[in-house]
Amino acid sequence: MNYCKYIPIDVVNGEGTRCTLFVAGCEHHCKGCYNQSTWNVNAGFPFTKEMEDQIIADLNDTRIRRHGLSLSGGDPLLPANLDAVKKLCLRIRNECSPDKDIWMWTGYTKDQLTKEQQEVVDLVDVLIDGKFEQSLKSANLLFRGSSNQVIYRFNRSLSWWKNKENDNK
Ligand code: SF4
Questions:
Q1: Is the pLDDT confidence value at 161 over 50?
Q2: Candidates 28, 40, 136, 149: which one to mutate for ligand 1, based on the most atoms within 8 Å of Cβ?
Q3: Are residues 75 and 69 in contact, defined by beta-carbon separation less than 8 angstroms?
């Protein structure tokens, strides 16, 4: 996977203070997309183990408290990105405290997800789904560009940790 931008301290993309990763690659090509430079899977820089380690370290940095990671793009659920995004999400679940939440923006709607995409979504707390529709654009929407997009709050970290506790019993 490639990524286009990493913001270690971000107060715009999601609630609280966050780390935000903009991955490369999107097949939706929405009319009016603000991030067209992220459409090509080869845009930006290789997402290396060092970059992964940096994100984990930033989330665990007690000097500046981050509430979690925001994954945007591009599309984190582009099939070519799934393995890398899943690995990163699993590392956050395993190596960061349970109060770190994961937000994800995707151009797929929740009901379009494949089994493989759903497995990644199972690791996130908040999903904002759907393509950007220019005719439904509104500046009043929080964390969304157009009103067709839906914000799902799964509270996944809590259920994930509960399952992990049960697994360990
Ligand atoms: S899904 Fe997002 S990144 Fe992809 S084209 Fe649409 S608005 Fe742009």
A1: no
A2: 28
A3: no
Q: Is the pTM of this model over 0.90?
A: yes
Find the 61 Cα to ligand 1 centroid distance in Å: 31
Quote the domain boundaries for residue 32. 2-167
Q: Is the CB of 35 under 6 A from ligand 1?
A: yes
Q: How many residues does the structure list for the chain?
A: 169
Question: Quick count: other Cβ atoms within 10 Å of Cβ 2?
Answer: 19
| pLDDT of res. 167 | 56
The two most distant CA atoms of the chain are separated, in Å, by 52
Token duo for residue 110:
């929740």
Q: Could you tell me the strand order of the sheet in which 68-72 lies?
A: 45-46, 2-10, 18-23, 68-72, 101-105, 126-129, 150-153
Closest-lying ligand 1 atom to the alpha carbon of residue 38? 3
Helix axes 49-60, 82-95, angle to 10 degrees: 30
Report cis status (omega within 30 of 0) of the bond before 68: no
Number of folded domains in the chain?
A: 1
Sign of the CA dihedral running 90, 93, 119, 80: negative
Q: In whole angstroms, give the CA distance from residue 131 to residue 110.
A: 11
